[in-house]
């Protein structure tokens, strides 16, 4: 097991606490938002006591109850009780798109995020009020060709070092800490380069910081101490910032990394080491989802071993023909489909895409439904991803579901239904909200998809994997309305000869 300083059981406790604390906070300080509304409630009552009781029951059997509600009200908007307030769930695809494309001053992404993660407290108001890191990452991560060689190189070394396999022996590994280490190392290689991406103290600090945020332990004045010897931003103020003040953004040997991407967008008060560290930690938090997706994909691959051969053949064929490049990874259509299917079923929790209505007049959907000022909106993620109207056998894992769809497409580049681009891993829709949808759809998804596909292709070509127990997939942890891959799940892995 990699030397992460956080025991996996502690991590599990963190998750438990992370899902129960917001409910408690909501109970104590919750928005006493009107319980009266014309929108159908989740259960047939709107009185405060039974709503609180339902909110309590949701903590224990949220997924099941939500499933029932979606079957009943899945074609519009319905209300889910939290303690002393409602969450409005938007399920009809057209309305999901309307909510997702509404401007921030009407339907607020930041308001939703603050409700879910108490971001003003955990990340800091300066970050939430001025999220300039989002356009910075959108632009910085755009040219995948440029940093692909480093990403691939780090994945290869990280798998090798972390798995530490001997000869041809099977080794039983706990997937979460292993994959967390590999993903954070390869992400850090692109974000901040060598040698920091291999500095275990730095990796542990960022991963533990993420856990603290989920646990609501971090307050704004708090910042973990990063290893100063390696941390380029520590002397950023005196060196790079001075250079940029003198000559602007264009100077010889300017590093193409996260700090430079941030500096392209940062206002004067953001151009300090501490402020930059805060942004780096925030983006590490956002990138945290990637290890969950790779963990889920490995659970699926070992649960359904019939996919190993065709996926391996594709990876070997493409690499033999085109080598390891960003373009060759894009040509791995079956691997793309397998990962998209794995994410469809595992990556969206019961609810997601949290938003808050901040327009004083509320927000009116095209079907006439009005949600009032101050209220909280979400999309029932797992339900829309498994809507039987859109997906055949929606709960069945069908790894080539999307590659089959792409085979039948016209190949036009127009991005309409029927074009080859509608079923890529990175394509969002109101019925595939793994990366959200609309205005705030994840800007890191092109990078994450490339990272995930490269990692899976590398595993298929270089390792054999099998389930700890044949036919059993470690069950996702589900608490309340949250879901994460099983943190204790194990699989066997060995080097291929
Ligand atoms: C498999 C990996 C990932 C998944 C499943 C994922 C998922 C998401 C989701 C669901 C959202 C919210 C979208 C919405 O509410 O409409 C989001 C937003 C975001 N993600 Fe990702 N993400 C992943 C990887 C990454 C990576 C690698 C980065 C890079 C730093 C990143 C950066 C962001 C940022 C900055 C936002 C906020 C966007 C905004 O404010 O408009 N994500 N992501």
From TrEMBL:
Cofactor names: heme
UniProtKB keywords: Heme, Iron, Metal-binding, Oxidoreductase
Residues binding heme: 442
SUPFAM superfamilies reported in the protein's UniProt record: Cytochrome P450 (SSF48264)
Top-level taxon of origin: Eukaryota
InterPro entries in the cross-refs: Cyt_P450, Cyt_P450_E_grp-IV, Cyt_P450_sf
GO molecular function terms attached to this record: heme binding; iron ion binding; monooxygenase activity; oxidoreductase activity, acting on paired donors, with incorporation or reduction of molecular oxygen
Coiled-coil annotated residue ranges, if any: none
Similarity remark: Belongs to the cytochrome P450 family.
Protein name stated in the entry: Cytochrome P450
Lineage: Eukaryota, Fungi, Dikarya, Basidiomycota, Agaricomycotina
